[in-house]
Amino acid sequence: MKRKFLFNLIFVGILAISSSFYAQELIDEEKKLEFQTHFFEALKQKAINNYAKAIESLELCMAIDASSKAVEFEFSKNYLELKKYFEAEIFIDKALLKDTNNVHLLKHKVAIYKAQRNFEAAIKIQQKIVETRTEYSDELVLLYLQNRNFEKAASLIVEIEDKALATSKIKGYKQYLENRKKAIEKTTDKPKINTEIVDISTLKKEYANNKEFKILQQILKTELSTESFDLLYSDSKDALELFPTQPFLYLMNGLALNKLVKYNEAIAVLSIGIDFVIDNNELEASYYEQLSIAYEGLDKKNEALKYKQKAEKLRQHN
Question: Which residue has the higher pLDDT, 89 or 162?
């Protein structure tokens, strides 16, 4: 009798412990599912540019798991889109404490500094990235150019070429530096031309002589207004050899390609050019507008809508 009582007592104890563990597993599973639901909702809201709503969902995620690196990263992304740079930096720093050398986190921190035109800080982070990931050297060259560290940019280009890692972007940056050097050495005492009152043939003759960017802009704007899209394409393409960091030229080239129904080529050109747009909402909106047109031409409705909304949002803030 005593043995039976002891057996029952042990059985009840085991059952109670098992039930407790099972209940805890259920709670943990429910929390995990709840976390995933809120996290995916945050991603969905960010995808449709509803950044404030995305942050609300991320706050619910944080209430469940306050130490999630993924949540901190998403917080930072959304705050950057809202131009809340202080908050964006706080959250990316929290994520980096957990994963110091994560290249995606580091690249995002570079983006935060670039958005504030803090190129010195961006350069320090990009240098750290390049130490282990040399394929991102072209971004470091661009940062040097944007910060007017032309000698450092030229020196890094030589290093990249010596390692046979030069990309089309690197070749463009090298051409830019060579053209800049020639422009400094060239005398500037040629008579100025009134670009407002002369015809395009006169503008082209003058541009052939002195390669002034202001005259080139007037030529391309005239070709655009007269719907001479073949000329706009060829002239903007040729101009990119001389001015590879001018976002206006990539935009004109991409626009011409869209008009010529070459949508994939337009996307490729526009995706390069937009990297050179700095602190110019109207120009950035024009890029998104052309990207939307290109994706619409390829019948990629979701991408087209995404870029259309980006353009509209930027113009609302102007």
Answer: 89
pLDDT (mean) for 141-170 = 82
The phi-psi region of residue 279 (left if phi > 0; otherwise alpha if psi is between -120 and 50; otherwise beta) is: left
Helix axes 51-64, 2-47, angle to 10 degrees: 160
- DSSP state for residue 147 in the 8-state scheme: T
Give the containing element (helix H, strand E) for 185.
helix 168-185
CA distance 64 to 52: 19
Across 93-98, average pLDDT: 93
Ordered domains of the chain (ranges, CATH): 31-116 (1.25.40.10), 200-317 (1.25.40.10)
Q: Is residue 220 within 8 Å of 211, Cβ to Cβ?
A: no
DSSP string covering 83-108: T-HHHHHHHHHHHHHH-TT-HHHHHH
- The tokens of 70 are what? 């993924």
- How far apart CA 99 and CA 107 sit, in angstroms, is 13
Q: What is the pLDDT of residue 147?
A: 81
Cα torsion for 265, 271, 276, 282, to the nearest 10°? 100
The pLDDT of residue 182 is 65
Closest CA to 232 of 189, 188, 262: 262
| Per-residue pLDDT, 317 | 64
The least confident of 12-16, 140-144, 295-299 is 12-16
Mean pLDDT of the chain: 83
How far from chain centre, in Å, is Cα 160?
23
Report, in angstroms and rounded to the nearest whole number, the Rg of the chain calculated over CA atoms.
28
Contact 178, 185 (CB under 8 A): no
Q: Is the separation of the CB atoms in 177 and 161 below 8 Å?
A: no
pLDDT attached to residue 195: 44
Tokens 């869209």 correspond to what residue?
258
